[in-house]
Amino acid sequence: MSEDDIADLERLAAHVELPTRAPLFHAGDLARFVYTVTSGTLRLQRDLSDGRRQVIGFAIPGDFIGLSLDETYRFSADALTAVSLCRFDRKDFTSLSHSRQSLLERLHLAATHELTIAQDHMVVLGRRRAEERVAAFVLRWRERLGRINGRSATVGLPMSRQDMADHLGLTIETVSRTMARWMRDRIILDVPGGIRVLDQQRLAAILPD
Amino acid sequence: MSEDDIADLERLAAHVELPTRAPLFHAGDLARFVYTVTSGTLRLQRDLSDGRRQVIGFAIPGDFIGLSLDETYRFSADALTAVSLCRFDRKDFTSLSHSRQSLLERLHLAATHELTIAQDHMVVLGRRRAEERVAAFVLRWRERLGRINGRSATVGLPMSRQDMADHLGLTIETVSRTMARWMRDRIILDVPGGIRVLDQQRLAAILPD
DNA sequence: CGACTATTTGAGCCTGATCAAGACCGGTGG
DNA sequence: CCACCGGTCTTGATCAGGCTCAAATAGTCG
Fold this sequence. Notes:
The structure is a homodimer. By secondary structure, the first copy, chain A, is an alpha+beta fold. Chain A folds into 2 domains: 3-106, Jelly Rolls; 128-205, Arc Repressor Mutant, subunit A (Orthogonal Bundle), CATH 1.10.10. Chain A is built from 7 helices and 11 strands. Chain A has helices at residues 3-12, 90-99, 101-127, 130-149, 161-168, 172-184, 200-205; strands at 14-18, 23-25, 33-39, 42-47, 53-59, 64-65, 76-79, 83-89, 154-156, 188-191, 194-197. In chain A, the strands form 3 sheets. A 4-stranded antiparallel sheet of chain A has the order 1-8-3-6. In chain A, strands 2-7-4-5 form a 4-stranded antiparallel sheet. In chain A, helix 2 packs across helix 3 (101-127). Chain A starts with a helix and ends with a helix. Chains A and B meet through strand 5, helix 3 and helix 5 of A and strand 5, helix 3 and helix 5 of B. Chain A binds a DNA duplex through residues 129-130, 160-162, 170-174, 176-177, 180.
């Protein structure tokens, strides 16, 4: 984005800080704001009335949240770690994007990227077995973090096992057992706040393309 | 869109007609074109190397296909019925969208709409039981068709049972049994090329929000 | 330390998959 | 007209991957 665009955005932006576990918004709330994540990790989820939960995804620095054009948010967003965000009033943001082509392009890029991720995840949810799902998650999460911090064998997992399970359409027990097995097999190593990938080869081999 | 925009688009557009079963493009092909559907239904899918298949979705009139910004298509597209489309060269389309704000807005709208659908479908794939998945599909498909043709109790199903199964992460047998049960229970009626919804109430009641 | 929550581990069960026939249906040609 | 064929769909019987229920263990934060 150009200097001017950034300057214009700065004027509209409000900074928001959330502590761990704090909600940013709830599904169904009036969608007044859009956000970009500056630091930390958020969980995006949809809840069914009977308690079932689908974690749509996780937002990390660089991601937009709430850019759908609905009146209300379609999912809830909660901080998994301390989080800082830039908040924009949707009305301002929309009208700025009308005058600044480059901002709209950036938004559209973000949306299609999200869409690609969502479609990839459909394959995981629809056609992958349990172990493949967990492997897909670990590999992609590592990849995503790598794009921010640089690639590392150590993969931080700020989300709970329950969050992973609800993201992958599994139960917490299945996720736990799968990762326990990998630890016994020296494919991964348990480190505080995450895991270390010891054998990328074997992990990747779990996933047929 | 404005008259001018439409005129500009017309100059770039080529018409494409596909017979039933014809492929439009294959996952991995160089993504030279974007398309909008004029008539008919297409199936969008991803294949795994071992034969498993995920049907990402179905495209009907008004939908864009291939608007992701990747070099190559991320899924294959095939005609389920005879199909007509408008084809645009991606390069032309992109540069036009740079000069015509309104086109980019339209694209962005389409992308976020697709994203919403994808996220809804994640909930279905991740957290719905078999009967709920089929119910969600029938209800949403009916809704989508209704927005084009006007609402009707008769719902055309141009896709095969296998396509439905691969869309819902189920087997053909499960889809078949589920719908057979609904027919016995007079919730739906078998009509050639589709079904007729006899009891919308009970069908909707299968799905907790 | 102690209360609470998250995670791991074990045992048994159930939903939906798999395997296997058989029915249906449209097209084709004798 | 109907026998045949290939594909799609239905139906039945059995199986198993992952879920449920239950309990022990490990973290975490006052």
